[in-house]
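Supplementary Note 2. Why include the ligand at all?

Several targets in our set were suspected to adopt different conformations when bound, so apo predictions alone were not considered sufficient. For every target with a known small-molecule partner we therefore ran a joint prediction. The input for zinc ion is given below.
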Amino acid sequence: MAECLVAFLLALLVGTLVEYWAHRMMHGWLLRKKHAEHHKEGVGQGWFWEFLDYFLPTLPLGAAGFLYSLEAGIGFAAGATFYAAFAAYAHQLQHEHPELCFWLVRPVHYLHHKNHMWKTNFGISIDLWDRVFGTYRRVEWQREQPFRFRGLFRIKWI
Ligand SMILES: [Zn+2]
Ligand SMILES: [Zn+2]
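The joint prediction is reproduced in C-alpha cell form.
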C-alpha cells in the first residue's frame, strides 16, 4: 500500500515538473511553431484532447512502474491519470474562466497568455515550479467576473 501511495505522489510530482519544463522548452525549441499558434489562438482544445496531450507521455513511465512492482504500477497509473485530468481541466478553465481557478493565487497560465509572457509563468496546473525555478511573475490580477460555482462545469469538454 505504501508503495502504491508513493508512486501516486511521484506521478503528480513528475507530471507537474514535466508540464513546467515542456512548456518552458516550447518557448525555446520544442514544438515552437505549434505553441506559437496556441498563443495566437488563445483557446484550449477541449478537456478530452488536452487530457490525451498530458496523459500519453506518461505511458512509458507507467510501464516502468509496472516493471518495478504491480503496486507501484497501479499507483503511478492512477496518479498519472489524476494528474492528466487535472492539468487538462486547469488549462481549459484558465482559457475559459480564469476567475474560477480557486486553487491558484493568480491564474498563472491565463496571465502567461494575456501578457504575452515568453520567459515567465510556465506552470499550468500549479505555480510551484515557477516559484522553485525563479520564473514566477507577479502581475496585477483582479477577478473580472464574480465566482460562479456552475461555471466550473461550463467548459469545452470535447
Ligand atoms: Zn506558452
Ligand atoms: Zn494555453
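The chain has a mean pLDDT of 96. Helices lie at 2-26, 32-41, 47-55, 59-68, 70-96, 108-114, 128-132. Comparable summaries for the other entries are listed in the accompanying table.
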